[in-house]
């Protein structure tokens, strides 16, 4: 009988100007133990962060991805048990659904002996997600720029290891559907040029581990200004006064988490962001995280009965 331990990191995407184009893996994890059963049934247990939001029936996203991946590859799927231990806030902009999709695809590959490559796992997860910007860093770790389309192209780089990511998550759900709907269908050319310039500069600086200009490069005109109307305090946090150690700040994915890059005073920066949310009546939680450089990890065993 097969048993595997699967670990997938959280991720923050967009990084401000790199809208739908870049993501960073974080040392905050979804851990799943998947075990083959000798009868065609499913058993699911969930614990950890937001466990009450993780269904333990057929609507579980990991279980759905296992079935979907097996079916798409024409594989016979045995019964299985899932033991889920989650650290990633659900629906808060830290890649929880991407992590679940990656975990499910990897679990199907293991249970069915598919031997899927990271590229194949990415196609499975990105098709379910609709984009690769969270799934790619969840798979490869580090800082990943991606292009989606008929083919998916990814370029992975190391994130400066001495920097920290200050993630502040308010007790406020900003639905991805709503966060997408508020964006205009068309943009002025000047806004597009504004973002292209900053996204290119941002990635160049991050790859070199240089902080100069990163604060400016994480500003954008394509999504954050529109989403600021949906999340109380966001506009103020994005305009946070410069302070020692603050490198840049951005909305994480579609929110509601906001992230700041810091090379000093991470606790103070987090306190300043929390204080702004508090002034708007929102409680919040601060996590000071390192970037994850490993991505998806799978270790499996097979026992003979």
Description:
The chain has 305 residues and is α+β, with helices and mostly antiparallel strands. The chain has two domains: 2-157 and 292-302, Ribosomal Protein S5, domain 2, CATH 3.30.230; 164-289, Alpha-Beta Plaits. 33% of the residues lie in helices and 27% in strands. It contains ten helices and eleven strands. It has helices at residues 61-72, 96-112, 118-129, 135-140, 176-181, 189-208, 214-217, 224-227, 234-238, 266-279; strands at 2-13, 22-36, 42-48, 80-86, 143-147, 153-157, 164-170, 246-251, 258-262, 284-289, 297-302. Strands 1, 2, 3, 4, 5, 6 and 11 form a seven-stranded mixed sheet that branches. A four-stranded antiparallel sheet has the order 8-9-7-10. α1 (61-72) packs across α2 (96-112) and α2 (96-112) packs across α3 (118-129). The longest helix has 20 residues, at 189-208. It is globular and about 60 Å long. 45% of the residues are buried. The model has no long low-confidence stretch (mean pLDDT 95).
Kindly list the characteristics that best describe this protein.
305 residues; alpha+beta; seven-stranded mixed β-sheet; Alpha-Beta Plaits
Number of strand segments = 11
Q: Sum up the overall morphology in one term.
A: globular
Helical amount: 25-40%
Order of helices and strands: EEEHEHHHEEEHHHHHEEHEE
Kindly name the structural category.
Answer: alpha+beta
> Mind summarizing the main beta sheet?
7 strands, mixed
The name of the CATH architecture of the largest domain is 2-Layer Sandwich
The tally of domains stands at: 2
Contiguous uncertain segments of 5+ residues: none
CATH first level of the largest domain: which class?
Alpha Beta
Mean pLDDT: 95
Radius of gyration over C-alpha positions, nearest whole angstrom: 19 Å
Any idea of the CATH topology of the largest domain? Ribosomal Protein S5, domain 2
């Amino acid at each position: 009988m097969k048993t595997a331990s699967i670990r997938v990191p959280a991720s923050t995407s967009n990084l401000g100007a790199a809208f739908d184009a870049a993501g960073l893996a974080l040392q905050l994890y979804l851990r799943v133990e998947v075990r083959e059963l000798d009868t065609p049934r499913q058993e699911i247990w969930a614990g950890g962060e937001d466990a009450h939001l993780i269904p333990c029936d057929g609507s579980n996203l990991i279980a759905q991805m296992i079935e979907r991946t097996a079916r798409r590859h024409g594989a016979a799927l045995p019964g299985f048990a899932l033991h889920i231990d989650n650290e990633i806030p659900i629906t808060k902009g830290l890649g929880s659904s991407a992590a679940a999709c990656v975990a499910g695809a990897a679990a199907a590959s293991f249970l069915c002996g598919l031997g899927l490559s990271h590229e194949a796992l990415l196609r499975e997860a990105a098709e379910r997600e609709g984009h690769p910007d969270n799934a790619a860093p969840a798979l490869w770790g580090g800082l990943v720029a991606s292009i989606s389309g008929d083919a998916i192209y990814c370029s992975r780089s190391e994130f400066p290891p001495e920097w920290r990511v200050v993630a502040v998550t308010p007790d406020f759900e900003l639905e991805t559907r709503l966060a997408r709907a508020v964006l205009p269908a068309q943009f002025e050319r000047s806004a597009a040029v504004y973002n292209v310039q900053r996204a290119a500069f941002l990635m160049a600086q991050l790859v070199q581990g240089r902080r100069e200009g990163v604060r400016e490069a994480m500003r954008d005109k394509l999504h954050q200004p529109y989403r600021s109307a949906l999340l109380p305090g966001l506009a103020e946090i994005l305009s946070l006064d410069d302070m020692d150690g603050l490198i840049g700040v951005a909305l994480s994915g579609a929110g509601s988490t906001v992230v700041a890059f810091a090379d000093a005073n991470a606790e103070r920066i987090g306190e300043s962001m929390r204080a702004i949310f508090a002034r708007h009546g929102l409680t919040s939680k601060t996590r000071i995280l390192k970037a994850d450089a490993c991505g998806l990890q799978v270790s499996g065993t097979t026992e003979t009965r």
